[in-house]
């Protein structure tokens, strides 16, 4: 995988490779020859219009969906190989969904520890100690005994992130983690994600938060109509997109690639969706 010198993990073997992935739902072609890879320690953001295949790609990445063509290779393992133990593979891939998917009858702590005690057979006291440390990490130590209904959307999403981290995944997949949140709680979730990225977690993030993608991603993949329109470092995608449709998509979201205007520096300008990420 040479040829991407600007990518942080380019000297390491890729952790996740999508080779000409095709996925159909009946007559709908959801993925049409999608090809990119994720290196260890990278944050790769998937952006693009609704319906372009981004969520489908994530579901193929952890084998929630089988592909109809091409290959998904995770740490050298072809997910379609019938010898592959998909249950084991999925335990190494954390997933954070748009709608949190917490168990409503369990406390925040219990949501975080459930996988540890049931799947990993970790004794409850140890699981609770690890669970509390993870809730502390996402800034929710004081909410351990609360149920999801007593928490804001942003807090529930942070519990969901702690739950995924409990299994010590090699890669975290985020499917529009902030798009169901009230605007005032989006920042706290993005801050937690930024911190994870800074710690070196490998992350694949489907997002409409262009400011996050611009600042945090190592690599950005632009989807359009089931295909990859273009991919590259954020400076390319946001400041000098090579494909006119990328520029159209970004400008539709209020992002204007105006790096060449005097005094504007390298970063583009965000209109309506600007967020501060510490
Ligand atoms: P995005 O995440 O970019 O919004 P999706 O991956 O959700 O796009 O969808 C890509 C295409 O696949 C869309 O046309 C969508 O309607 C279709 N699709 C996704 N999931 C299913 C499904 N389970 N059954 C049928 N069609 C689906």
Structural description of this entry:
There is one protein chain. This protein is of the alpha/beta class and 278 residues long. It is built from 9 helices and 12 strands. It has helices at 54-61, 86-91, 108-118, 124-137, 153-166, 183-198, 210-216, 234-239, 244-252; strands at 14-25, 28-39, 43-47, 69-74, 77-78, 93-96, 171-175, 202-206, 219-224, 227-232, 255-256, 269-270. The strands form 3 sheets. The chain has a 6-stranded mixed sheet with strand order 6-7-8-3-9-10, with helices on both faces. A 4-stranded antiparallel sheet has the order 2-1-4-5, covered by helices on one side. α6 (183-198) links the parallel β7 (171-175) and β8 (202-206). It is globular. The chain starts with 13 loop residues before the first strand and ends in an 8-residue tail after the last strand. The model is unreliable at 259-278 (pLDDT under 50). It binds adenosine-5'-diphosphate. Residues 25, 28, 30, 48, 50-56, 223 line the site of adenosine-5'-diphosphate.
Present the secondary structure layout.
Elements: E1 14-25, E2 28-39, E3 43-47, H1 54-61, E4 69-74, E5 77-78, H2 86-91, E6 93-96, H3 108-118, H4 124-137, H5 153-166, E7 171-175, H6 183-198, E8 202-206, H7 210-216, E9 219-224, E10 227-232, H8 234-239, H9 244-252, E11 255-256, E12 269-270
Parallel strand pairs: 3-8, 3-9, 6-7, 7-8
Antiparallel strand pairs: 1-2, 1-4, 4-5, 9-10, 11-12
Helix pairs in contact: 3-4, 3-5, 4-5, 5-6
Bound molecules: adenosine-5'-diphosphate.
Adenosine-5'-diphosphate binds near residues 25, 28, 30, 51 and 53.
